[in-house]
Amino acid sequence: KQWYQRRVRDGKAKEGDCTMLDVLCPVLRVMQFNAAGNTSSLTAMCSQSADTGVLKTKKLAARAGRASYIGTVKTSESADPGAVAAATWIKSVCRVLYQEQLNK
Questions:
Q1: CA distances (Å), 16 to each of 34, 40, 53, 63, in order?
Q2: Radius of gyration of the chain, Cα coordinates, nearest whole angstrom
Q3: Please, which pLDDT band fits residue 24 given cuts at 50, 70 and 90?
Q4: Which segments of 36-80 does DSSP mark as H helices, in order?
Q5: For residue 79, which of 61, 62, 54 has the smallest C-alpha distance?
Q6: How far apart are CA 59 and CA 91, in angstroms?
């Protein structure tokens, strides 16, 4: 929660502004509410949440982040690049954690 509050204060962006926060915030909520779960299910839920966040940005107008000031025209086919990048990082980490769990 403190992380999110600092991002809003310092970055002037919040969830729903069509930024990477639309991926990071839902993933953090999944982690917070399912921290006691097993690694396999947690990584799957985080990956799914990241994908859902990316899809959500296709419907949002950019109000913060780089897309808001470069004049990107929002179409229903384009996701926020920062959200796509954040989802890629998250899903990569999830794959590694899942593989490590399988190898134990």
A1: 23, 28, 10, 8
A2: 15
A3: very high
A4: 39-57, 66-69
A5: 54
A6: 22
